[in-house]
Amino acid sequence: MSSLYGPDLAQAHAAGYGFHGESAAPFVRQVLTNAPHKVRRVLDVGCGAGQWLRALADLGYDTVGLDVSPSMIKLAKKNSPRSKLLTGSVHQMTLPAVDAITAIGEPLNYLKDQAAIAQALDRIAAALPPGGVFVFDARLPVDDIPPARTAGNVQKDYAVFASIAYRKGGRELVRDITTFTSEGKNWRRADEQHVLCLPPEDDWVVWLRRRGFSVAVKTSYGRYALDEDVRGFVATKDAA
Fold this sequence. Notes:
With about 240 residues, the chain is α/β, with parallel strands linked by helices. The chain has helices at about 5-15, 20-35, 50-60, 70-80, 115-125, 200-210, and strands at about 40-45, 60-65, 85, 100-105, 135-140, 150-155, 160-165, 170-185, 185-195, 215-220, 220, 225, 230-235.
């Protein structure tokens, strides 16, 4: 079982951290609409609690969600009951044939190293037809490493605190996350460590092109600006 996004953190993430997917949604919907190959079936990698899957299903797409966290998949079953849901890692699974793949919210950074990312991209390329599209975002390495910092989100029923630090010359990001969840008069604590692999932008472009994609790099999803060290990628599979 995955150590990422256990029950408490999954609930907190679903309740308070869905803004990124919501903000990206109009742009991604437009990409799907304009794709060279007609999009009927969409796979969302790192589907989380399923809010984006539900939005896609409401638009009439046949949807498949994949997440490494069983707790997230449990939430996605409630939020998007029409979607087919799979539990596992994108670099270890044979993916179903689809017309488009999305991975919003940096899920590929959670793969353990560049070898795992390469395996994931192989599987993604194999799942798409010529003209199929792959839309995702990824966090990049930093040259000027900032000092470690702590961020928090305190709500009535839960609180999340994260200690955030870079390692390996800015090519690895570590988040030590503590979640407190209300249990009547008491609070339950859960701890997780998330380690993100941060390849440079140029590496992503090279890897995608080697797998037969044309690539456009984005600093925003339409009007929604991404963080300075995050890039969006719109990859279209070339004709055979």
